[in-house]
Amino acid sequence: MDQGRQLRMQDALKRCAQGDSMAFAEIVQEYQAMVFSIGWHYLQDRNLAEDVGQEVFLELYQKMATIESAAHLTYWLRRVTVNRCIDQGRRKKHRRELALEDAPEPAGREPHGDPLLMGRLRETVASLPERQRMMVVLRYQEELGPAEIAELLEMPVNTVKSSLHRTLEELRKKLSRKLLGEIRYALF
Amino acid sequence: MMTVLKHWPRIFLALALTFATLPGFAQPGKLELKNLDKLSDKASEVNDVTLDQSLLQLASAFLSKERDPDEAEVKDLIKNLKGIYIKSFEFDKPNQYSQADVEGIRAQLTGPGWQRIVQNIEKKSGELNEIYLLKQGEQVAGMTILVAEPNELTVVNIVGPIDMQKLGELSGHFGIPDDIGDKPKNKPKLKQRTEGTTSSTEKKEARDQKK
Amino acid sequence: MHFSEYDLRAALKRKDPGAGFTQRVMARVNQAESKAEQPERKRTWWWSRMWSLHPVLAGALAVLLVVAAASMGFVRYQQAAQQRQEAQKARAAEQQVRLALRITNTKMNQVLQRVNTQPRDNSIRRETL
User: Fold this and answer.
1) What is the DSSP letter of B139?
2) Which one-letter DSSP state was computed for residue A101?
3) How far apart are CA A132 and CA B178, in angstroms?
4) What band does A185 get if pLDDT is binned at 50, 70 and 90?
5) C116 and A181 in contact (C-beta within 8 Å)?
6) Contact call for residues B48 and B192 (beta carbons, < 8 A)
7) What CA–CA distance (Å, rounded) separates A71 from B41?
8) A152 near A78, Cβ under 8 Å?
9) DSSP B152
10) Contact C112, A185 (CB under 8 A)
11) CA C115 to centroid of chain Cα atoms
12) Eight-state DSSP code of residue B81
């Protein structure tokens, strides 16, 4: 977290403790992309991601007194979001097709390269088993290292490292399978 | 007249057998795979599956939409099928089956309605891989997969409207492996039998014991 | 199919939930606060009310319920035994279906992958319609 942002959040936390609801709204605005995106990339369901996001911030409001610093706030939000996403994912029955209303956000122009590849990658990540999926999201969305991921997911660091390595292999295989599926579609 | 009445049971049987073998009366799309049974003795691994419509319906009744979404998908996949017939043989040594065995199957796939949609031939290794569809108008009414490799011969014959997309999407679900890649060279031997028949591995062991 | 870690980062870039998210959160926060201020109503279950008013009737009803449940239980036991037998047959058929689909899926993917990965040269003839 850059220093300016850290100072802003520190100040907002202080004002929240004094009962300033506008300060809480600032915190929500600052972290909503992070919380929502973890939910969205994990659950691939806009409505569920928004629900999770709202619940996380609601819980934050109720537990503001326990937040000690801006860094603690970031850690706390990630931790609670991760847990709620995993719970929500278990509740949500296994789905292999996206309903129309859950289709990805119209992203506008993809900032990088091939939009088809981006879409396929997101879908393939969403099809991974829950722990692996969350590891990938935390690694590549949040740019966390294995130690931070291990702490959030309550796993040994070495397990995270080896699992990430295996998961990338699995992602490559799954993408190949997607391609096969497209060939089947073209043929049949 | 008296002669006819005297021999009518035999005449009736002859007529019945004649009509039964006419193409129109056999189940359309079902291949005759019995000539491959002789390969069981030479194979180290045999998978022989015969699922007619009644067995498929029984299995379908057992699958539960509520218990597992995968079972719901499979239920949907097999609900209109009339049969699944598989003969799959793996051999320890190459050339345990003849070209005639393969051509006997392929000849049946030149019949009306059958279209070959995929063919891969590798002359170096002597591999032939083909997929055929049986079309009735625009509808798929059957499918056959033929895999003929030096150490393997597999024929998968599905009778009825099969959804290929749904079939492909089963990878990783319902106990179907997720991996795509070449088969491992040293797989553990597997005994898979049809109802009431003994697998080739068990026959081999029985013969060895007698010796 | 090849992709880099850079591609993954790009695919998983953070997305904003859109306009109104903050307002929706604050609305829920305010709603939760006003609910917390209302006292909770104590619930009384109907059977505890009945027990206190008519103990004899309640006792007779309880006995009737137990007897009815026991007889229904016996009938169900017999039905269950029959169903178990049917289920065994169906389970065996289901196992065969699993095997059949496993082989079919594997072989189909094997053939399609061969078609997709073989280099194009004179020794290979690929024909797709």
Assistant:
1) E
2) G
3) 16
4) confident
5) no
6) yes
7) 70
8) yes
9) E
10) no
11) 37
12) -
Query: If 0-12 CB within 10 Å is exposed, 13-18 middle and 19+ buried, where does residue C89 land?
Result: middle
Phi, psi of A80 (to 5 degrees): -65, -40
Q: What is the DSSP letter of B128?
A: E
Give the E-state strand segments of B16-138 in sequence order: 45-52, 83-90, 114-122, 127-136
Q: At what angle do helices A21-43 and A115-126 cross, to 10 degrees?
A: 90
- Alpha-carbon distance A177 to C111, whole Å? 13
Give the list of residues 6+ apart from residue A78 with CB closer than 8 angstroms, or none: A34, A38, A138, A142, A152
Phi, psi torsion values for B195, nearest 5 degrees: -65, 125
CA distances for B177 relative to A96, A171, A173, A181, C98, angstroms: 17, 16, 12, 15, 11
**Residue of B50, B129, B149, B153 for testing the chain C interface, max C β-carbons within 10 Å:** B129
3-class DSSP assignment, residue A1: coil
Q: Look at residue B30 in the predicted model and tell me its pLDDT.
A: 94
Q: Does C127 touch chain A (CB under 8 A)?
A: no
pLDDT tens, residue by residue, B41-85: 999 999 999 999 999 988 888 777 666 667 788 888 888 899 999
What is the CA angle A92-A95-A96, rounded to 5?
160
- Cα distances (Å, whole numbers) of residue B26 to B18, B30, B87, C47: 11, 8, 19, 67
Q: Is C99 on the interface with B (CB under 8 A)?
A: yes
**Which pTM does this prediction carry?**
0.48
Confirm or reject contact between A137 and chain C (CB < 8 A). Answer: yes
Say which of C96, C105, C110 has its CB closest to residue B170.
C105
Chain B residues with CB inside 8 Å of C88's CB?
none
Q: Which residue has the tokens 């009735």?
A: B136
Whether residue C122 has pLDDT greater than 70: no
Neighbours of chain B (3+ CB pairs under 8 A): A, C
Cβ B191 vs Cβ B201: under 8 Å: yes
Q: Counting one residue from A and one from C, how many pairs have CB atoms under 8 Å apart?
A: 118
- What whole-number distance in Å separates Cα of residue B96 and Cα of residue B90? 9
Residue scoring higher pLDDT (A146 or B22): A146
Q: At what angle do helices A70-91 and A46-62 cross, to 10 degrees?
A: 130
